[in-house]
Amino acid sequence: MQQGASNNGQRLEVIVEGSEGSIRLDRVLAVRSPELSRSRLKALILAGQVTIANVPVRDPAYHVAKGDTITIDVPEAVAAEPAGEAIALDIVYEDDDIIVINKPKGLVVHPAAGHETGTLVNALIAHCGSSLSGIGGVKRPGIVHRLDKDTTGLMVAAKNDRAHKSLTEQFADHGRTGAMRRGYMAFAWGLPNRQRGTVDAPIDRHPHAREKMAVRESGRQAITHWEVTETFQTRGGNPIASLLACQLETGRTHQIRVHLAHIGHPLMGDSVYGPHFKTKANALGPEAQAALSALGRQALHAYLLTLEHPKTGEILTWEAALPEDLLLLQRALRAAE
Fold it and tell me: How does 212-235 read in b/e, with b if 16+ C-beta sit within 10 Å?
């Protein structure tokens, strides 16, 4: 494949070898131009940016022939719709393809109604600048997974179409066939009756409270693996809470929060899925009660992220220590014993 410049964009040339596994234009280009996503290639074809013998081919299903020279004119990425904002980020890793950050509590990931500015997307647009070649022709980061506003921890974003395609596939697979892993530390009320377990329960929108999710037969499959890593007791020796290490096998909205509440051990501080556990706080010591009250959020932290680098194929792992508010809660719970 040859590359050149075209109106400040990029011109790619592909010669059909006949070994691509298909004669469809879009499928041949997907094999030969992996830096562009399938949706991006389709959009370029439909826009007349793909030519054979200087003639635009606007049909993704067009049959190419061995030896055809296909030219793809990729326009320069346009400015992102959300504006960049100078918001401080805790950057764990960054290169030309991906950026990994340790998200603080209170930071919304995507602009939305009520949160049009001050989001992670705004921050990444400003920080990445010229290194952000964009997703789908727009200079924006490729967000392939989210953390709730008040959940802290590791997140990865793609800087270009090739990385976005790879990360999307890895997160869809959830480590079933690849190296990708996502680990969370969860402070939960009570103590499960065994050391480790799995919650396999479908999740869908709550039938009445639309801002909530719930375990429902109509939902999509959701699987969470958990293991007890620490137990906290009252001064009387009764178990009051536990620290669980959770691994996701699927990625549903509020999955850990919903699943732990489903098995009777909701997250500490979770006002949405564990409000009926507020009276449990009365059994905590004064220091632990103060730490929980000061927390003001669900006690959940994404501490582990493993993935295959989209370009090099290297297996990369990052870990993020508990943030200060959860460390304070942990110390206070230990002190109460």
Answer: ebbbeeebeebbbbbebeeebbbe
Backbone phi, psi, residue 72, to 5°: -115, 115
Reference 316, options 93, 5, 62, 71; nearest CA is 93
Greater confidence, 160 or 198? 198
pTM: 0.77
Report residue 85 as tokens: 């904002």
pLDDT of 228-287, one tens digit each? 999 999 888 889 999 999 999 998 999 999 999 999 999 999 999 988 777 788 888 899
**Catalytic machinery residues:** 148
> Any idea of the CA torsion for 287, 292, 295, 299, to the nearest 10 degrees?
130
Place of tokens 């003639």: 55
Strand partners of residue 203: 215, 220
Cα–Cα distance measured from residue 230 to residue 188, given in angstroms and rounded to the nearest whole number = 11
- Nearest-10 crossing angle of helices 286-295, 324-335: 160
- Whether the CB-CB separation of 153 and 303 falls below 8 Å is answered with yes
